[in-house]
Amino acid sequence: GNPVSLADKDKIADAKAAYEALTEVQKGMVDSAKVTAMKEADATYNNLVKIAEVEALIEAIPANVTLADKAKIDEAKAAYDALGDLKDSVDTAKVGKLTTAETTYKKLEEAEKKKDTDQKAATVVINQIKAIGTVTTGSKAKIEAAEKAYSALTAEQKKLVTNYNVLTAAR
To answer: CA–CA separation, 126 vs 123, rounded Å?
Structure first.
């Protein structure tokens, strides 16, 4: 027969409705091959709907993924995974878009975590510098501790120390 498409929705629904309206005796008179074909067409149509729904969820993911897109990515991925054997029927470009979106999101998430870690490390040093206060003869230990802490930071973390000038002035 002809391949089933999403455009066959009404034909399949009409055939099912007509068959269901028959009595059991009448159903027995229908060619079993035609009943099987109708059931297969219905199953194929339902699979096409599932695939189209997954593809629509993938399409809803923006091209430029941000951390705000987590729910859309997760929903599309869960729907895609739920397809099981039908996964192979999803448009390969859309599968690629989903994979790229997941990868991009993970990179953004890692960058965000690194930013948080860097800011925390810098804040510790900022607070040590603030603790120096007015420089006196007794400030040497605090200045040295702050300098040691500052030198232990990465280049990125050092850029986040907003009061480094205070430390250089304290020397």
So the answer is: 5
- CA distances for 166 relative to 118, 131, 134, 135, 171, angstroms: 20, 11, 10, 10, 9
The rounded distance, in Å, linking the Cα atoms of 130 and 152 is 18
Q: Which residue has the tokens 């810098």?
A: 122
User: How far apart, in Å, do the first and last CA atoms of the chain sit?
Assistant: 88
Integer Cα distance of 149 and 131 in angstroms: 13
pTM over 0.70: yes
For residues 162 and 125, what is the distance between their CA atoms, to the nearest angstrom? 10
The CA distance from 72 to 96, in Å, is: 15
**DSSP SS3 for 158:** helix
- For the stretch 34-83, pLDDT in tens is 999 999 999 999 999 999 999 999 999 999 999 999 999 999 999 999 99
